Amino acid sequence: MSVDSSSLGPSLRLSSRMAGVRSSAIRDLLTFTARPEVISLAGGLPAVELVPRGRIAQAARRALGDPHSVQYGETSGWAPLRETVASRESEAVGRRVAPAEVVVTHGSQQALSLLAQVLLDPGDTVVVEEPGYTGALQVFRAAQAAVVPVALDANGMDTAVLEQALREGLRPKVVHTVSNFHNPRGVVLSAQRREHLASLADRYGFWIIEDDPYGELWFDAPPPAPVATHSDRVLRLSSGSKTVAPALRIGWLHGDRRVCEAVELLKQGADLCGSSLTQRIATELLDDRTWLDSHLAAIRGAYSARSHALVGALESVFGERISHTPVFGGMFCWIEFADGCDATSLLARAIEHDVAYVPGGAFGVADAHSHAARLCFATYGGEVLVEGVNRLRQAYDAHIRTPWSVTGH
Amino acid sequence: MSVDSSSLGPSLRLSSRMAGVRSSAIRDLLTFTARPEVISLAGGLPAVELVPRGRIAQAARRALGDPHSVQYGETSGWAPLRETVASRESEAVGRRVAPAEVVVTHGSQQALSLLAQVLLDPGDTVVVEEPGYTGALQVFRAAQAAVVPVALDANGMDTAVLEQALREGLRPKVVHTVSNFHNPRGVVLSAQRREHLASLADRYGFWIIEDDPYGELWFDAPPPAPVATHSDRVLRLSSGSKTVAPALRIGWLHGDRRVCEAVELLKQGADLCGSSLTQRIATELLDDRTWLDSHLAAIRGAYSARSHALVGALESVFGERISHTPVFGGMFCWIEFADGCDATSLLARAIEHDVAYVPGGAFGVADAHSHAARLCFATYGGEVLVEGVNRLRQAYDAHIRTPWSVTGH
C-alpha cells in the first residue's frame, strides 16, 4: 500500500519522502488473513498464551501504588529500567555498560527508526542482509539511504562478501544485521563472522546495528556472544516484546554514549517519553531473575516443540518438494520450493485454503526469493501447525494443477 | 543541550539533521530542578493526585482478562479506541468523523512528529505562533523547515498579520496553532479568528495543525468550536495525557484520510504500533462518559482554584512589578516583568531560592520574550503555589539588588 495523494493538489501535496514509503507486505497480508478460520503463519506474533498476563496484572497493580507511575517520565527511560538493561547488557557483552549508554524506546523498532535519523543523510549507504528484516528496509528507505544487500547463508551474513565490497570501495555508514535467529531466514551469525564483522567496522569505520530481538529464544544452546562484544562501533537493539509482552512496547538501544544522547534528543520530538506505567511493569518482570529464567525456559520449550511440529509436518507432508533452514531458535522457519514454485502466486491459493505465510520476495532488496517463504511457528500449538501444513499442501497441489488461473487472479 | 560528536571522526559522524536539533530548554531545566525542595513551576506536568490511578488499575485488570491485550496491535490504533475518538471528534466539530480519519498515536507529540515528516520537505515554510510550543518548534526544525513566526495577542494568533504576509507572497505548507489555552501564553484563539484562519487555509491552500491538548481544561465556559469545524484542511491533534493520564501515552490525530494513511505508513516504521494494553485502558475510561464528566469537572475545579491561588499571589506579592495574561483554562500563566527584568538571569537566582519557571525566551523563534516567563499552576496545590511566588519575590529582590553578580555566573 502507498498513499494516493494525487487528489490533494500541489500546495497540499505530501512530502517527497512519502513517495518511497510503502506498507510492509506483511502488514498488508495480515489485513487479508484476519478471518478467524485462517491459520496465519505470516505474522511474527509471539504465543499470546505464554505471555504472563497474571504477572503483568500484579506488576501493574504494584506500579500504580506509586503516583509517579502515571506521570510523564524521562525521555531516555525510567532510571531503574535503564539500570536493569545496562546490567543485562553488561553480562551479555562481558564489560561494564553504564545506564548512560542505554536508551529505552517504544519497542526496538523505535530505536531502529531514531538511529536511522541520527546516523543517515539522504544518499548515505546502508548494508542490509539479503533477505532482510522488512521493518529495517522500510526505515532505511524512509531515510532515503542507498541500500546495498549482502547475501546470507547458513552462518548468517557473508562477511567475506562484505569485505570484498569494502576493498572495492564500498563505504557504508551503517551495516544492519539480525545476528540471532534471523528474521526471515532463521540463521545465526557464526562466532567467527561476528569477530570478522566487528574488525571490518573498526578498519573501515562504520556503525553496526546489531538488531537482536530473538537472542533469548534459543532451544538447545545460547547463540555466540554478541557482535558488540568485539567492537564499540556496535549499536545493539533488543526488546521485551518477544520475552515478556509486545503490548508493553519496551525496547532498548545500547551503545556509544554520543549516539544515545542524539537518539534521546530526537526522541523528545518524536514522542516526549515512553510510558512510565509499562516501563515499571517491564522492570519488575526483568528484575525478577528467578521468575524470568523459568518463564524463558517455558517459552524456549514451547517454541522448540512447535518448531519440531512444523518442521516434522513439512518433511512428512512435502518430502523433497521443499527444503528448509534448520531451526535452532527464534520464531521463523524459511522454506524453499524445490520446483521453483512461485510463493507469491501460491499465496492467493493458500488463502483460499485458509492458510497464510509471507512470500520470500517481501524480504528482498532485489527481486529475489520468489520460490521461498517465511513461516512463523510461534503463534500456534503443534496440532494447528500440522493442520496448517496440510492445508498448504492442498493449496500447493491445486496450484501445481492449475497455476495459470491463479496467476491470472 | 546538543550532542558533541566531533570526536566520532568523519566516517562515523552523525547526520546533518542533528546539527539543528537541540534539547528543549524546558527539558534541560527540569534536570536542574529535580531536587525535591525545589517548587518547579517549569514543567507542564498534570496534577498527579488527580490522575485516576484506582480507575486505571481496574481497567488494567479488566483489559488483561483478554489475551489480545498483551499482543501487538493495529498500527493506526485499537479499532474501538479509534471509534471512541471518532465519536468525540464528531461531537466537537459538528459533523460525522469516520474511524478511518483517526490515527491513535503515542501521545499527540508523535502525531506532530509524524505529520511533520508526512507533510514537509526541507525548506518548506511552516508558520508557528510567537511565542510557541517548543515541542512543535523542535519537530519543525528537525524537518529542516523554514519556520516563520506570527505574533499572538490576547485573542490568539493574529490572523490579520498572517493574511498580510500571505498577500505579500508567504506560502506556508503548514500553520501550527495551539488554539485553546495556549502553551505558553494561555490565550484562546477567538471564534472569529478560527473562521478567518480556516478561510485563509482554503484560499491559499495550506494545512492547519490544530494542536489541542488543553481544550477540555476550561474553567467557566468551554472554548469556541474547533478550527476544524470550519475547514477540512485542518489536522486536529489531541490527547488523553491532560485528562486521563500522561503515562498511557495516548494521543490522536483527526483529519484528511490520505494524511491519516500516510501517518499510519510512517508509524509502521517508527514503532510498529502502540500499546494494546494502555489503549484498552484509555478506551474504557473515555467511554465511561458519566465517570469522565465528573472526573473532568474535578480537574477543572482544581485547576481553576490553583490558577486563582497563583494569580492572587502574583498580584499581592509583586503588585505592579509584573503583568499576567488572564487565565481561563489550561495549565499555564504567562507573566511579564514591567521593569524589563531578564527572566533567564533571574532564573539562576530563583533556583538558588528553590523555585523554577521557564523563561519566555525558550518559546521564541526570534530572540524575544526575555522579560517574560511561563508558570505552570497545575502541578501543586494552592499553598505550595503561594510559597513558590514568595520565593520568586525573594529571588527577584536579590536579583534587583545585585544583578551583575548573577549575570556573571
Structure description:
- Two copies of one chain form a homodimer.
- By secondary structure, chain A is of the alpha/beta class.
- In chain A, 42% of the residues lie in helices and 14% in strands.
- Chain A contains 13 helices and 14 strands.
- In chain A, the strands form three sheets. Chain A has an eight-stranded mixed β-sheet with strand order 2-9-8-7-6-3-4-5, sandwiched between helices. The first copy, chain A, has a four-stranded antiparallel β-sheet with strand order 10-11-14-13. In chain A, strands 1-12 form a two-stranded parallel ribbon.
- In chain A, β6, α7 (191-204) and β7 (207-211) form a beta-alpha-beta unit.
- In chain A, α4 packs across α8 (257-271) and α11 (343-352) packs across α12 (382-401).
- Chain A is globular and about 60 Å long.
- Residues 405-409 of chain A have low confidence and may be disordered.
- Chains A, B: One of its GO terms (molecular function) is pyridoxal phosphate binding.
- Chains A, B: Keywords: Aminotransferase, Pyridoxal phosphate, Transferase.
- Chains A, B: Belongs to the class-I pyridoxal-phosphate-dependent aminotransferase family.
Overview in brief:
Two copies of one chain form a homodimer. The first copy, chain A, is of the alpha/beta class and 409 residues long.
Q: What topology emerges from the helices and strands here?
A:
The structure is a homodimer of 409-residue chains.
Chain A (H helix, E strand, L loop, with lengths): L24 H8 L6 E2 L12 H11 L15 H15 L8 E4 L1 H13 L5 E6 L3 H9 L3 E8 L2 E2 L1 H9 L6 E4 L13 H14 L2 E5 L22 E6 L11 E4 L2 H15 L4 H12 L1 H30 L3 E3 L7 E6 L5 H10 L2 E2 L1 E2 L12 E5 L5 H20 L1 H5 L2
Parallel strand pairs in A: 1-12, 3-4, 3-6, 6-7, 7-8
Antiparallel strand pairs in A: 2-9, 4-5, 8-9, 10-11, 11-14, 13-14
Helix pairs in contact in A: 2-9, 4-5, 4-8, 10-12, 11-12
